[in-house]
Amino acid sequence: MEEIKKKKNKRTILFVVIPLILVAIGVLVVMHIIKKTDEELKKNTLPDNDKVMTVEKREIVNSISGTGKLVSKNSESPSSDGIGMEITAVYVSEGDVVKSGDLIATLDPSEMIEQRNDLSKRISDIRSTQASYHSDLDKATQRSNENKLNRLYELNQSLAEAEAEYNEANAELLNSEQEYEKVKDSEGYVDQLRASQLQFTIETQKANVNSLKSEVDSIKESIDAIENPEENLFDTDRTVKQYDDGINDSVNALQDQIKEINKRIDGANIYATMDGTVTSVSAKVGNTYYGQGICTIEGVDDFIVEAEIDENNIPDVRVDQRVYMKTEATRDEELLGKVVFVSPKAGGGSGGGMSDILSSLSGGDDLSSMMGGMNALGGGDLSSMIGGSSGASYLVKISMDSKNERLRLGMNVKISIVTEEVKDALSVPYDAVRERDDGSKYVKIIEGYDPDREYEDGEEPDYKISEIDVEVGMEGTYYVEIISSEIKEGMQVLVPTGEENSTVDDLLNMMGSAAGS
Fold first, then answer.
1. Residue 370: C-alpha distances to residues 61, 397, 493 (Å)
2. How far, CA to CA in Å, does 466 sit from each of 381, 445, 446?
3. Half-sphere exposure of 265 (CA within 13 A, CB side)
4. Among 152, 169, 328, 503, which is least packed by CB within 10 angstroms?
5. pLDDT tens-digit series, residues 332-352
6. What is the pTM for the complete model shown?
7. Could you give the angle at the alpha carbon of 251 between the alpha carbons of 249 and 254, nearest 5°?
8. How far apart (Å, rounded) are the C-alpha atoms in residues 502 and 500?
9. Are 477 and 384 a contacting pair, CB within 8 Å?
C-alpha cells in the first residue's frame, strides 16, 4: 500500500512540476525574443523613429492641375446658300479623310431654277410693255388730229386691260400677304418653308404690281396728253422719264432676286473647305436643307487642349504659362505646351476639380505619382491640386507643342499649369522643417549615420545630430525650399515619421477639401 501511495505522490508531483517547467521555459523564450527585438530596434531605429532624407536640389513649383480634352486646332462645318432645297446626296461618312475642294453633298436646285425662269419671263414681259409704251407714245405724237379719236380708243382699251391686270395682281398680292401672316410665326418646318417661299413670292408680286401701276398711270397720262395737248405739252418728257424710272426699278428688283436665286443654285454643290478628317455628319438624304453645316471636318495634325479651370484658380492662370501634360495613350511621355487663351467670361460648369485629379492618381509615396506618374519637373514637386467645386469655371486653351503619333481627337489630357517656380532650390520634405516657440525655424542634420551598419551588443550608434537654423522659401505640397549658408546638397536631414504624410491619400486628407491651398 505504501509503495502504491509513493507512486501516486510521484505522479502528482510530475503533473505539477512539468507545467511549471514549461511555463518557465516559455518565459525565458519570450524574454530572449524581447531582448533580441530591443537590440535589433536599437540597431536600426533613430531617435523618435525619425526618417532620414537627403537634401537635394529640385525645381519647386506651384501648379494648377486638372483634366482637359484634346481638340483640333482647325475645325470647319461646310454649309451652303441653298436654303430650302432637298438634300439629294451625301458623299462622306464619319472617319473619311477629305481634301479642300472635295464634293461632300448635293442639293436639288430644280425649284430654284423654275423660280428663276419665272422671274426672267416677268422681266421680258415688262420690257416688252415698256417698248410698246414708247412705240405708242411716239405714234401718238405723230398722228394727226384725225387719228386722235382712234388713238384715244386704243389707249382706253389698253388702260382697261392694264387696270384689269393691275387689280388682279393686287388681289394676288393681298392673298399672299394674308397667307404669310398665318404661317410666319409657326414653328413647324413645313410652315417655315412656306413662309420663306411666300416672302419671295410677295416681293415678286409687289414688283409686278408697281410695274402695272406705272403702266396704268402712263396710259392715263397719254390719254390726258392727247385730250389736252397744250396743257401737257411740256410734261411729256417728264412723264416718259418717270415711266422709264418705274420700269427700271421693277426690273432691278427682279434682277436682284435672280442674283439671290443664282447664289442658291450655285450652292447646290457643297464642297470641303479644308483638309482633314470628317468627325461627324449631320445631313441626311431626303431632308430639306436649312443652312446648317453638312458635316464637321477637323484637322488631325495640329491639336490644342481645352480645359475648364475653377473660379478660385483662374486668377493665377495667364497666357504663355508653361504646361505639362500626359495622356493614357502616350503613357509616361511628358508632353509640353503653354497657355494660349484664357476666357474672360465664365462658361458655367465645374472645371478640373478634385474628382478629376483623384481619377488620375496612381498611388506612391510622393506627389510625383500624380497625373499618371507625371514627374513634370525633373524630380521636383507638384504643389497645387484643385479642390472640388460647384462654382463657375473658365475655358482655358493650351497649345500642344509636343508631337506624338499616338494622339487622337477627344482624348482626355491630364494637365499641370505652372504658375510659379524656383529652379535648383535646396529642398527637404515639408515636415523636416521644425519650428521653435519663438517662431524660428530649423532642421535636424544627421552625420555619420549608416542604416546598414551592424552594431555589437552594448555598442551605441556614433552618428551626430545637430540643429541648423534655416529660412523657408517657396513651399510645395511635399517639398519646401530651405535657405541657409550651412546647408549643402547631399546632407542628411531627419524627418519626423509621426507627422509625415507619406502617401498621396494621406496628403490629400491633410490638405482637406481645399487640396493645395
1. 14, 22, 25
2. 27, 5, 7
3. 14
4. 328
5. 888 899 999 999 998 744 334
6. 0.42
7. 110
8. 6
9. yes
